[in-house]
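Tutorial, part two.
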Amino acid sequence: MPVALWRELIRDDFMRFIDLGHSFDCKVAHHTCGSIITLIPDFIECGLDILNPLQPDVAGMDYTEIKTRYGSDISFHGAISIQKTMPYGSLQDVRMEVKDRIEKLAANGGLILCTAHNIQADTSLDNVEALFKAYKEFGRYH
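Running the prediction step on this input gives:
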């Protein structure tokens, strides 16, 4: 969907949704898949608190740039690939993806570290275990 059409058809109601959550003193999270880099400024202007996910394996999702440009204004939830790394990666691939996401997105807070969506049935238990080991190894704020 072109950004202009999103703004015309969805933005005002999206902002009302966020305002409603805030009226109850809630932080508001929103799930939207795909390459949403061009919409992040709108999400922030609308008052969104948490963006879920930063989907890997799609165009334009440069985590260093996203964190630098928007990390002080919005929190990020999920960035570990359930389409590529979790089902098809090695144990080391899983470990290194967790390390990479923490290095690029965790500085100064604002990262809820997890997969980009639910872990799927095609993911081995070994990779799930590697994921949690990597969370424990790298997932601490210093």
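The radius of gyration is 16 Å. In part three we will examine how such features are distributed along the chain.
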